[in-house]
Write a structure and sequence with these properties.
Elements (H helix, E strand, L loop, with lengths): L1 E7 L2 E8 L4 E5 L6 H8 L7 E5 L15 H15 L4 E6 L1 H12 L4 E7 L12 H14 L2 H4 L5 H5 L3 H11 L4 H12 L8 H5 L5 E4 L8 H10 L3 E4 L6 H13 L6
Parallel strand pairs: 3-4, 3-5, 5-6, 6-7, 7-8
Antiparallel strand pairs: 1-2, 2-4
Helix pairs in contact: 2-3, 4-8
Length: 261
């Protein structure tokens, strides 16, 4: 993997890439880094140029300033500018799906395809579900201590994860910055949404792959909302274990069919 830095809005942001050709950008979820999103797309490197950034306020992309979905979407555009990509397939897992969705709504001309992997956000009209509110409030209560106690305050949360995820999460922790952790956690707990109503979903004009969620943080009802309203939406079940294979089957031929590199 090739590491690189790029600038967006006066902040230095980090990303890794591999492969060549058409670009796929995959965004991680909240309180994570590119180490969480990379496994979802790494096997596509023989066919695509795969880029996994650390979102602003996460991983090595340190930023303690308040976050917004527009700011994060602007960072994705700055990334595409930096790598010289006019258009890309842009996707995200969990909270990262909200950034990808916001980018597609704001910059459809630069979005070749949209990947929504186990989405979190139901829109401003719905907001978070009660279990989501409780989960994110608990997380914020711990993360808010990072400025005084250091980022290792998150270690007990990450050590409770299932073994394969746990090791990646603990590896991420060493790259975190306390102010960034607080800014990201507050943003998640705030309930900010990447779209307003289902009408925004119906306005999407790009091919979309939805991998459903079915747990309290990624409720089935949110995936139902997306599947009902996004016009050109391919839906994969929550039971999918090889997300990269689903992405590959979607990108060729649904997104790139008939195109040449």
């Amino acid at each position: 993997m090739r590491e690189f830095w790029f600038e967006s809005g006066g902040t230095r942001l980090f990303a890794v890439e591999d492969g060549s050709g058409r670009v796929i950008v995959m965004l991680h979820g909240g309180m994570a880094s590119h180490l969480a999103s990379l496994p979802l797309v790494a096997s596509l490197v023989p066919w695509y140029r795969v880029i996994t950034p650390d979102l602003r306020g996460s991983g090595k992309s340190w930023s303690g300033t308040p976050l917004t979905f527009d700011r994060l979407a602007d960072d994705v555009e700055a990334l595409l500018d930096h790598v010289g990509a006019g258009r890309a397939v842009v996707g995200g897992v969990s909270g990262g799906s909200g950034v990808a969705l916001r980018f597609a709504l704001r910059r459809p001309g630069r979005t070749a395809g949209l990947l929504l992997i186990r989405p979190v956000y139901g829109g401003e009209a719905r907001g978070y579900t009660h279990p989501q509110k409780e989960t994110f409030a608990r997380m914020d209560a711990v993360a808010s201590r990072a400025l005084d106690e250091g980022v290792q305050v998150l270690r007990p949360l990450y050590e409770s994860l299932p073994p394969p995820i746990r090791e990646r999460a603990l590896a991420m922790l060493d790259t975190f910055d306390a102010a960034s952790v607080v800014a990201t956690s507050r943003f998640i707990a705030s309930g900010a949404q990447p779209f307003a109503t289902a009408a925004d979903l119906r306005s999407l004009s790009v091919p979309t792959l939805l991998v459903r969620g079915e747990d309290p943080v990624h409720p089935a009802e949110i995936s139902d909302l997306y599947a009902r309203n996004i016009p050109n939406c391919t839906v994969a079940p929550a039971s999918v274990t090889d997300v990269a294979a689903e992405i590959g089957a979607f990108c060729d031929p649904v997104v790139f069919g008939g195109e040449t590199t």
